[in-house]
Fold:
Amino acid sequence: MRLIQQVKQQINIWAILSSMFILVILLPAMLVGKHFFAKPNENWLHIKEYLLLDILSNTLVLMAMTGILTTAIGVSLAWLITVYQFPLRNFFKWALILPLAIPPFIGAYTYHGILNYTGVIQSTLRNQFDVQVEQKYFDIMNIGGAIFIFTIFLYPYMYVITKSFLENQSSSIIENARILGGNSIEIFFRIILPISRAAIIGGVSIIALEVINDYGVVKYFGIQTFITAIFQTWAGMSDLDSAFKLAGTLMVVVILLLLFEKFARGRKRYSYSTSKIRPIIPKKLTKSKAMLASGYCAVIFCLAFLIPFAQLFLWMVMTYDKIVTVEFFGLIKNSFFVAAISAVIIVIVGVIIANYTRIYQGIYAKVISKVTVIGYSIPGAVIAISVLSIFVALDNYLLSVFNYFQMDPLIIFRTSIIMLITAYVIRFLTVGYNSIESGFEKIGNSFTEASKTLGVSTIGTFFKVDVPMVKGAIFGGFILVFIDILKELPLTMLLQPFNFFTLATRAFRYANDEMVSEAASASLIIIFISGICIYFFHKISEKGSEK
Amino acid sequence: MFVMIENLKYQYNKSTKAIIQNFSLKIKKGEIISILGESGSGKSTILRLLAGLETPNSGSISINDNVIVNHHHFLPPEKREVGIVFQDYALFPHMTVERNIKYGLRKMSRIQKQQRLDEMLQLVRLEDYKNRYPYELSGGQQQRVALARALAPAPSLLLFDEPFSNLDAHLQIKIRNELREILKHTNTTSIFVTHDQTDAVALADRIILLENGSIGNELKPSELASTNYMLQYRTGLRI
Ligand SMILES: Nc1ncnc2c1ncn2[C@@H]1O[C@H](COP(=O)(O)OP(=O)(O)O)[C@@H](O)[C@H]1O
Ligand SMILES: [Mg+2]
Structure:
């Protein structure tokens, strides 16, 4: 009886729309699965025999080393900032997040430009001091270099996650440890690391997904990974089947990673207790220790932001009159256009799904909520080839229909921007959805319930109460998606229509053609906009936590 | 009988035991009922069932001879005309007092809405506050706005979930006397749930004890009052 009523209540516009969106999100994953078990061709057998092991080991080494190093840097910085008071702490607190504004591939070509034979370091040494250096010490175009680049530009994820975890811990944990007579280093290893385990593992898995997804760094440095191999087999050899096999194998790696995350995290989730806690009050460090702490933060900040930023700025100054032309403004327009459209679609879809999963609790809603967030764990290149093959099939179908009526097709998807936007939506829905969902979680259900008992329907309530109340979270989700798309490279590379470039793909093309200074202007715009958004977000979350 | 609740049973999906069972209650038009029970005894759940925010496993509810829920019928909350004043008031933070109170008045003309608003503001004595936002009001004022908002559409049944738990003691006494007057003045049939005997005695025509998910003893407020010191409250305050 109650079951029938519950089912009746579940079938509504929200459920139908949400299910449709979910189907679109699931399509790439299902397509990859289908191809993965299909009969292999010769090319794939060749790849399997000669390349796969290399690809796999490169990917694993990059993931593991980046994971370890970002943990070391991110957690130690978060710990210093939350527990101690030292000069410039308040500046570093947010400045250390700033490297997130620099996409790793931009960092990669910038550092190569700084360190190579004609770069600023070697030419200064040569011209001012007459020193010739051994090239091999300055070569970062290798796996070690890639690990360095990933580490300095991705550690902020770890820093942000562990910092907000530690900020929500009670000061009594550390006070007790101090009373029990541990020194700082001991407290770090015996208390901070173990209690932050779940947060750290969450951070590691985000960073590992970023490493797996990367195309720009490994391509520029000439390292074979799954993504470069997908580009080669498909863009180079037009072998979609093998590209799908590679994608499938990569998805196995991703799934193993997510399983690892689930088990390593255990039952402890890093949810913060909502009750009032006494926050950790930063302790003043002695003079020499304080200098050390400031110095450490300064080194990381310089390496991960100031130095590459300054270099890019110099390059821009050198070349901007050549670069900043009508075409350049076209790039900005393109980037903003696709990012804005996709972000708008994402927040609309995100609001609908989040509202559905919130109001109608039940297994189906829970499944939908879980599926919504898988997009982000599928690498951009994998989504790209799936979306492409779907739209090619759609085009062929439409073509045959139009031919039947002896007409020209009205639209060809595979050369249109629709394909690119669809792929963005699938990949970045997670980001928008998470922001909106946490907005809904904060306000709870009571306002919606109050509205309904006042006689307003679910739809009316949605527009009058639900949406206005989470508009901050919606806006936040929009901004996060927007900057993610602005920085996006592999998916855009594979799906951008002919002669359509974004700031990111243009910068990468220039850099790959050894025109690094030309790449600088486009890169700086990306960094500038992302940087402003990051600053803005830091201020908001700062305010939120003070309340 | 105006409100008829028969054999209501409810169990949360996750739990193994029914929170509400064999719950039956009849209420006359204009009567004020108080359901008294310990915290966790299922008081809020009963109100949610009446308002349509949860679906009972079995049992039926009808108001003014209209069935709002039984084994093959379920009227959603927005169609029930059951008002509720939540424990935390749930005033819409992005709307002024005026817009909060007008929120439930959809079928009226603009002039009617304005009249009703003025009437309500006068009733709860908040005429000077209509342009304020909820966070610019004191706890007692917020409570009165919540009452005005719930009363404005003239619900056939008005529910209160621990209406005084967020107020200072001296405000509690003042407001609960006002509340009884307003409810009697508007002849509004109401149920309010509380764990506080004092509140129950001061407000209700009839007090119901909630035990193990169903109705235990039923008392006249005077009976409860005469058995303990509540008497002083009641006599001192209202007679
Ligand atoms: N959403 C829920 N899921 C499962 N159990 C719940 C839920 N909400 C309340 N309960 C349980 O139902 C019981 C009654 O809750 P409630 O009606 O809120 O009691 P009261 O309002 O009398 O304090 C409590 O034991 C509570 O733990
Ligand atoms: Mg309650």
